[in-house]
Amino acid sequence: MPGKRRMLEKMTNSFWPYLILTGLCLSLYLPGIASLPPVDRDEPRYAQASRQMVESGDCVRIRFLDVPRNKKPVGIYWLQSACARLSGEKDAIWPYRIPSVLGGITAVLVLFAAGRRLMGGPRALLAAALLGACPVLVMVAHVATTDAVLLAVTVIAQVCLMLAYVRGCSGGTVSAAVAFLFWAALGAGILVKGPITPVISLLTFLALWWNVRSAAWAKCLRPVTGLPLCLAVVALWPGLFILKAGWPAFVEFLGESVGRDFLGKVGGGRESHGAKPGYYLAVSLVVLWPVMLLVWKALPGFWRARRTDPLVAACLAWIIPGWVVFELVPTKLPHYVLPFYPPLFLLLAMAVGKPMPEMGVIWNWWMRVMTAVWWGVLVVFVFFLPVLGWFVDQRFHPLTLLPAFAAAGCGVYIWRQMRRGRAARALLAAAAFSVLFFVPVFAFVFPRLDAVWMSRKTAVMVHDYERATGKRVVAFCAGYEEPSLAFALGTHTRLEVGAGKAAAELKRNPDAVALIQDEAAPADWGGFLPPSWRAMLDRSVALKADSRYGEAFLKTAGQMGLTIREVAHADGFNHSKGRRVRVTLYVADSGGEGR
Predict the structure, then answer these.
(1) Order of strands across the sheet that contains 474-478
(2) Model pTM?
């Protein structure tokens, strides 16, 4: 055993862990990056705004179609538009996802590099591998949003702060490069997602100051020269913005970005994403199984060690105050607490192999309850994908069995290793679960759920019409107005025009087409379901009356004396709203039969 341990130490002190971790991340983040359509409303908004930067050459002002997008700073748009320019594929979604992939990889490698300096190679490798295979990171690394890049810059800033505290408590110091990285990462974090990274670092600093009642250790971060560097990074974009668009436009951006977007989320739940305090803890107990249970069990020992072990104190200071603040903010999504997962994995890596105290009857009862909950979630995972394929496409997808069996097998193995007290094997199995589950899901299952990707089906319908007629059309959309449709059809697309304006544009513009949302045909739920069940399912996913535009469109067109023709229609499932819809393509009929 000592010989194996020395061999492992030698291996983890070489360049091999970086290759292993990079390979792990690429195997998880790349599958489906090109074949998976935009998966929610935020991703196509980011990607479309970045594409418009490429098309217009304006890298200062952020716009989604013809509307200013005053939500987030410019950092993520610069990264995405740069990747689109370098790839030469501005109309595909995958270049805009490259920053998220690189952000996830960067966070993992930086965590390993810092962990290797602070607690040794093997434990750092375990912590970094768990972060790389974390289901939440795997999800955000597949979408063109800010979250993976925000994680990267936050990890860089936080590990620099951690190094300064650990070295400072022992009378040492850190290099000028570490101090430079800390302040540069704070500035980059502000450019990516506003004050999130500085707030996390400030809360960590205050907790560490409280722990030792001193801030002398922070002098090695060179705040006198570092703070101007941070401000210089942040000021780059506002300066360009004011020069190009003027001071009033920048004030308008600040009012909407800080006042409506950021403070709006702090003050109340936005876009139906509100939840009560404790939401993140409940989600993490399931998503990070068995990590959270092991950390929770070791937490009393860590709390006692915070006075004597600077690394433990730094991890707790990174997690606890920030997590509490995020729990108190009404607007919640599972990935918002992703920046607090790296120190959790560091703590767990420190605890693995050490005896954990017995927690008594209450702990054993609670662990049994959480194990039962996790098993319930696992069963849902096993049946979720086959049922989802049948629910939205009314057909069975055999490939959905691959991740289902992987989930079941890894779940049984994790449970058995936990019962035997083999935490390291359980954690490695959890990482293997991510590979065996997410690779087939993103590579084979999700891209083939055709009915879910209504924007893709609608775009195919429009492109088929363009090929048949040999002309480029402008789509005016009423009812179905998802941002993903704008990215699929192009910048000239017009959303949220209403039935009246869509009819008017058909009459005015010979190159216009109307995409009108209406009620979809009843789904074929299978003859084996009772009629009452089929009726209940139809009602649960039926389109609401105020979202049906077909009748109003036809009535308005008739009043205008406009003869229109239905070219094609597409039925599917709007996953953003949980409704079955039909999108019909209408054109002005210059002759022949109309309706």
Answers:
(1) 474-478, 512-519, 579-588, 564-574
(2) 0.91
